[in-house]
Amino acid sequence: MKISLKWLQDYVDVNEFFSKPEVLGEALTRAGLEVEEITNLAKDFNHVVIGHILEKDKHPNADKLSLCRVSTGDVVHQIVCGAQNHKAGDRVIVALPGAVLPGNFAIKKSAVRGVDSAGMLCSLKELGLAKESDGIEILPADAPIGKPYAEYGGYDDITFELKVTPNRADCLSHFGLAREVACLLGKDLKAPAAEPKVSSQSSKSAIALDVKAFDLCPRYTGRFIKGVKVGPSPAWLKNRIESVGLNSINNIVDVTNYVMMELGQPLHAFDASFIAGKKIVVDRATAGEAFITLDGTEIKLTGEELTIRDANHPVCLAGVVGGKNSGVSDATVDLFLESAYFVPASARKTSRAHGITTDSAYRFSRGVDPDGALRGLNRATALILEVAGGEAYGDHHDFYPNPVKKSPVTISVQTVSDRLGYEALEDKFVDFMKRLGCEIAKSGSSYSVLPPTFRFDLEQDMDLVEEYARLNGYEHIPETLPVFIKPPSNHDKGFMLNRSTSELVRAEGYQQAVNFAFVGSKAEKAFLGASAALKSAGFAISEKEIRIMNPLNEEMDVMRSSLSFGLFRNLNTNFHYGNMQGRLFEIGSTFFVKEDGSYGESSHMGFALWGKSDNLWNKSLDYPIVFELKATVEALMKSLNISSYTWVTPPKTEVPAFMHQGQYAQLMVEGKKVGFIGTLHPVLLDENKIRVPAAIGEFDLDQLYKGQPRPYRISSISKFPVVERDFAFQMDKSLKVGDVLKDIRKAAAGLLVNVEVFDLYEGDKMEAGKKSVAIRLWLQDKNATLQENQINEVSTKVLESLKKNFDLSVR
């Protein structure tokens, strides 16, 4: 939010900060109102002053140029000018040497067609104050010669760009900030006048009011104003609103914006001639009805929006935007002026639902002062009468059946001292509370503090402790080490397991992804397909989704049921941003609905891989990328000391829609399915224009962590040698080598240390449908040196078992 220092000066004395605005900026930032930028507008008009044309002659060497002698007080300047709309005696704007005009146009002493010129007579366009100009700007005859134009034109201002936190909606105005500055600096506060002159005519008779949705509109005030003259705003009003970044529209609209920026109370002015039935109705919208905003945008209402209506249709989305069918125009003569308090949630939902962001919605969404509605109405009425004339009717509307009441907070000064770690002063505490606008009464050693209605954030004693710390200065809080009486508590078991798992996976070359726990229901359903396939992989997943009551948008309206969708979006985004190869993992929660209707949560781990490394050493290797993921998962199993696991290939009906049916497997640990890995479906990759292979995996960590930590069996290192034996077997290509290795481990139990595949041949010298697999066994007796007969006995057992179970024999 932008704040004008000159405007602020109207309510609190900040004159000392015009020469040192940074000091005020630092004070506000320390108090929690961060100042992001300070701009001195007068710097744009350095060396630009008011001049008086003493003489105007023709240029001796150019017919279209004039030669002027211009006084700026003590000095007379010779200036060449190309415009023709000026004459001797005029007061003009002069840019002297040293000035830098918009576009980085520096004014210097120069020769124009052989004649010296020491400045420039300026138009408003050349000063950046207008889009078009007919010639140089001619000022009134009483404009003071030599005075800086920034000061004369009202541009000698300093603006602050503030970052106001959502809980401090009371500071979203100049008077609200003045209240804060007065409290911080111990200065007096001066409130703006808000007592308009009204006639004996009745506003209630001119425009009736019916508030039906009083749960969303606790207070509504309004007044009828007759015979206004809509036109351009006077200079002071135009300069004020433009100084804080608003555009001047006309005098009526500018007044409503002025009061919003002054008091923080948004208002809306209706053209009374367009209010059908001469009646204002505050009620919810009718589902499906159309509404056209002031800028001409047509939207369909859902029925949940709060609207301001006439007898036939909506004329305003309450607290958000006005309607084109009742906006103020040059032809407007009679007004109905509205100033209300709408429940913040109502304005916020309407604004988000239709993507409409306005200054009014910004304030109503955070909360305006319900007690400020009538003050805003009166202030705006007085200003409209001043700038547009007319007759303000009396007997105004003020619907406020249940006034908003704050609850008193009980607190002792000792509580403040105990929480801040230093002695709080009672006099200072009382002074701070009064300056904050609180009513305070002492009872024994405690105080009863009643916060004002504009401070929504003051609800309990700790809020008041924070206010004392903020106003007194956080720098007074002493730095002390806590007393360590007890040893620190143990880390959460799940946290420690997740950390060790993350470290292992990062060591495998993966980077961790962190996604939102809420996704778009339509997009997730389209990606995951039927939930039965994920249930088959061992996941707790429900057909019914968990919807968010107040979603940010339709892409974040449900809690996620799987990590795979989010990781696929990460993959897709990275690839299309030029990352042709990547490895991601995520540890997070998924959510489901239990049979009894309650909500459940599971901890999952997901993987996403795409593209292959350009390493020259493995260019000749051609393997599906899913095997790289398989190796990572098996390394994870080893780190968790899980040996009883296997990969199973389910029926095609149990393969998720986003997976390649021929390259998909489920992981079974100790007889229970805990997740899956697989290559992404080629059609899915093609639809998303992903031109590299990609794989996805997801596992239920709650199941994997059961029984953790699993104890490791530690044994001493044998001093006896290991014997290696190699075997090559010819087998069908369809036979799983993993099953063969499992059979070898069983047959050679006792002396077998390790077994693994070290060669695979599927060349043209093999029979069709066959492959040759070379397997190496490591044998060892931990108590003695292996004898030849022991080695032969084990080898025989292995070969007999493979012959019996798989009909395999050594090549």
From TrEMBL:
Residue stretches making up the B5 domain: 404-479
Pfam families found in the cross-reference section: B3_4 (PF03483), B5 (PF03484), FDX-ACB (PF03147), tRNA_bind (PF01588), tRNA_synthFbeta (PF17759)
Major subcellular location class: cytoplasm
Example of a GO MF term: phenylalanine-tRNA ligase activity
UniProt: Mg(2+) binding residues: 457, 463, 466-467
Domain FDX-ACB per the UniProt entry, residue ranges: 718-811
Keyword Iron part of the UniProt annotation: no
Subcellular location: Cytoplasm
Cofactor(s), by name: Mg(2+)
Domain TRNA-binding as annotated: residue spans: 42-150
Cross-referenced CDD domains: PheRS_beta_core, tRNA_bind_bactPheRS
SMART domains, alphabetized: B3_4 (SM00873), B5 (SM00874), FDX-ACB (SM00896)
Recorded catalytic activity of this chain's protein: tRNA(Phe) + L-phenylalanine + ATP = L-phenylalanyl-tRNA(Phe) + AMP + diphosphate + H(+)
Cofactor note: Binds 2 magnesium ions per tetramer.
Keywords linked to the UniProt accession: Aminoacyl-tRNA synthetase, ATP-binding, Cytoplasm, Ligase, Magnesium, Metal-binding, Nucleotide-binding, Oxidoreductase, Protein biosynthesis, RNA-binding, tRNA-binding
NCBIfam families per UniProt: pheT_bact (TIGR00472), YtpR (NF045760)
Family to which the UniProt record says this protein belongs: Belongs to the phenylalanyl-tRNA synthetase beta subunit family. Type 1 subfamily.
Subunit structure: Tetramer of two alpha and two beta subunits.
Protein name from the UniProt record: Phenylalanine--tRNA ligase beta subunit
Organism of derivation: Bdellovibrio svalbardensis
Gene: pheT
